[in-house]
Amino acid sequence: MRIAIPKGRLQDHSLRVFAAAGFNVPTAGDLKTRRLVFHSQLATGNSQLEWIFVKDCDVPVYVEHGAADAGIAGLDQILEHECTAYQPVEFDFGRCRMMLIAAPGAPPLTKIATKYPRIARQYLDSRGLRADIVPLGGSVELAAVLELTSHVIDLVESGETVRVHKLVMQDLVAEISPRLIVGKTVYRTRPREIRELIARVEEANYGIENTPGRR
Amino acid sequence: MAKLTYPTGVRPLLIEETARRRRIEARCIDVLERGGFAEVTLPIIDYVEPYAPLNNPDDRRDTSRQSYRFIDREGDLVAIRSDFTPMLARALAPSLSEEQLPLRLFYRGDVIRCEASRLGANRELFQIGAELVGDGGVDADIAMLRLASDLVRAFNGKPTIVYNDVSIAAALGGAAREALVTKRAGADAPPIVRNLIAGNATIEDVAPFAPKAAARLDALRRALDPDEFVLHLDDFEEGAGYYTGLRFRVYGKSLLAQGGRYDNLYARFGTAAPAIGFTFTIEELG
Which domains are assigned to chain B? Predict the structure, then answer.
């Protein structure tokens, strides 16, 4: 079984969930190396596990292709890649909102900078709006701050960046949560193994969600 | 300087690859002809209009949304072939008569899709498909499933054929269907949905709300080797397309073929006739 872990903001939470589910996950020491692939065994069995660490936007690609059997991906990346993998578990950590945000002074909607051109197109279609989409790789808010575009579509966690730059949140595009995604081929051809993995992760997620002191 | 590359998802096959494809084709045709199937040839382009009632613009994987379309010189909207099955129904249905049935047919050729079904997959796929038209019985289902298995075995493969019936999801409500598609059942999901997703539901559990599908699947389960033909009661896709009953996928090392039963498709083109078929993508075989 090969599991894709997203590097970046979801990495630590993802490993914590798998550890709570009884998997031997790579240690902090392992992760300090430049290796991207780690092997371990299920803590309670003999199944071999392989962990791969990839950019968050690539997790749906690996799972969709069958290069990984399962992984953790944000709904933003799942939607942007039109990933058809199953999404059996929705996690409580790392939740945020994808928002339409206007430049200071809230100018009319003419251009949208975003890392999510496909989602932006679907959003515009669903609202009957027309605007040009400018795909960017990162620091998307800067496009609105510098008036490269009238708007941006991006993820908002605390809203601090938006406030600091006097940007204006205008509309909710989507509620975003990380999900366990599972490839269709492995689900159909190795149902017992994959269902055990799903059940363990679901149980661990429920346990973490209901830990005293958490919301 | 002229471009060296080809449009995304297409490429030429040179001597060795073409020879390989021809070998695979020949072996498939041998199996199909021994099974009593006769070949038909379908056009590479067709008008869009006759297929309009089949289209579901809300389903992003609707094959009509995957086809290349253009206006021909007469001003008609035409599409390049992206799915053989509706084309065969349109070709046969207007002149189909009882005496001809059942018909066992196969076809081969390219389908071209502007959006690949898997990320990065080829846009031009060479397919061989077989259809049994005019037999709605469970024996026809068994025969076609076994024929699909024979095709994989002709290449020394060991097939796993996963099957289910799309009318089970159709009998459940929208929220339940959504849960089955994503494989995520909320705490408020009905017990049957949770059991289906957990893999604990049985045909008997499905029978109260989908009796016909349950009876049909039970007959299949009794007739087929469970090591090779695996019933997955929770196996549903977003949008069933034209499928009305049995749906199956054939796996070797990867997904080799898919198919199912579409008993309402021919009626839309003039003559009602039950039909079942499957399509193999040649590159995945051999």
Answer: 15-284 (3.30.930.10)
